[in-house]
User: Which sequence fits this backbone?
């Protein structure tokens, strides 16, 4: 990537909800999952049509060069015709299939729902990743603001010390300490700008923007004092991955019933119309037609036990899916409990950082007054400023870290809030 001047880059302002929406529209995994869901829905719709009658048409024409004859007392008679034309139209209606049609429809319905749940899982994962990237961008933006504030304070201190040095009040050590602190401030500011650019690039890749665009997050960050996320009991897990396995279980149960249905015969009704020459009249070479109506019964049983083995295999798949679902639920429950604890910890960390930042501010302001009165050294004031810069960064980061912890919690429980703003 060619380096460009940040002032020459385009800026894109986005709220958190807008960023998540862009990520969903852009993500190729979601597009693939959506196509899979649509294909499964089409297959299900197609299988439902097995309940309807089937209309078939067959037509043929052929020539026979040598016809057989029958000797009658009155003479010879040819059987059939050299020129043959035949058209048959048949309508077949399934009357009884032993549950094969209904269970086949059920299997494909659950497969369709499984693909839909997979799509929802992909959407939630993309929203989770985008939300984290957006909040990380906000973290580094806050850290840059803190670095700018620190740089401004160091610039003022450096200017004051320079004036004192030029007037002979401050010595060269004080002057060099102030210069060194300002250079460290420049380095911190440059580092914060680089981290911010990287975070912006990471988010841009997720939502389909070019590297040449700088993302400006516009989501309002409110202190989390009144946020109720961890103050109420944690809700039940509603992750689409669990729903997906639930549909796998139901599909396996339907598959077992489908295989079991092969023990039973199938009965179809049919009606047909036939027209041709010579058709049923093998002695008179004339066009004629006729109608047929009736029932067909089909039944077959594999004597090697194939059907019973297929039924048992389907049941075992269902049992396996149930165990997988329970195992996933236990893992998600552990993740939810940990995310719940981390959210409370993040809130307490924010409260502590708020108090520390307030104390550091008051201490720095007091130290600045005392330094001007000559009661403390420049070096001590610079130490106070460094502590203030560190606590300011910790406080700003703690606010966003709380919302990052909340994001982990929302994803752990499968909350739809993960698709919205803060």
Assistant:
């Amino acid at each position: 990537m060619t380096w460009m001047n940040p002032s020459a880059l385009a800026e894109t302002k986005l709220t958190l909800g807008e960023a998540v929406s862009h990520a969903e529209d852009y993500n190729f995994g979601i597009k693939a999952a959506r196509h899979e869901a649509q294909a499964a829905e089409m297959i299900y719709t197609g299988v439902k049509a097995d309940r309807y009658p089937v209309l078939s048409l067959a037509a043929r024409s052929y020539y026979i060069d040598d016809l057989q004859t029958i000797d009658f007392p009155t003479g010879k008679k040819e059987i059939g015709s050299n020129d043959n034309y035949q058209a048959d139209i048949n309508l077949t209606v399934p009357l009884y299939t032993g549950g094969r049609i209904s269970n086949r429809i059920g299997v494909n319905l659950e497969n369709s729902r499984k693909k839909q749940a997979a799509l929802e899982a992909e959407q939630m994962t993309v929203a989770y990743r985008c939300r984290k990237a957006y909040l990380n961008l906000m973290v580094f933006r806050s850290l840059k603001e803190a670095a700018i504030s620190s740089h401004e304070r160091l610039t003022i201190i450096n200017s004051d010390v320079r004036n004192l040095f030029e007037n002979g009040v401050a010595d060269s050590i004080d002057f060099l300490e102030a210069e060194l602190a300002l250079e460290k401030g420049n380095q911190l500011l440059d580092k914060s700008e680089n981290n911010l650019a990287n975070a912006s690039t990471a988010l841009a890749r997720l939502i389909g923007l070019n590297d040449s665009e700088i993302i400006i997050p516009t989501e309002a960050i409110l202190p989390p004092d009144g946020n109720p996320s961890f103050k109420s009991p944690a809700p039940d897990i509603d992750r689409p991955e669990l729903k997906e396995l639930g549909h796998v279980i139901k599909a396996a149960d339907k598959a077992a019933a489908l295989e079991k249905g092969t023990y039973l015969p199938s009965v179809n009704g049919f009606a047909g119309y036939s027209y041709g020459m010579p058709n049923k009249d093998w002695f008179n070479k004339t066009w004629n037609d006729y109608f047929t109506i009736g029932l067909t019964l089909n039944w077959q049983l594999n004597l090697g036990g194939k059907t019973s083995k297929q039924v048992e295999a389907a049941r075992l798949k269902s049992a396996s899916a149930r165990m997988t679902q329970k195992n996933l639920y236990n893992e998600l429950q552990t993740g939810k409990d940990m995310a719940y604890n981390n959210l409370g910890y993040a809130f307490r960390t924010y409260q502590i950082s708020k108090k520390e930042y307030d104390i550091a501010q008051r201490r720095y302001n007091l130290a600045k007054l005392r330094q001007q009165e000559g009661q403390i050294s420049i070096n001590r004031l610079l130490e106070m400023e460094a502590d203030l810069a560190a606590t300011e960064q910790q406080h700003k980061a703690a606010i966003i870290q709380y919302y990052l912890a909340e994001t982990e919690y929302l994803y752990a429980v499968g909350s739809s809030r993960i698709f919205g703003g803060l």
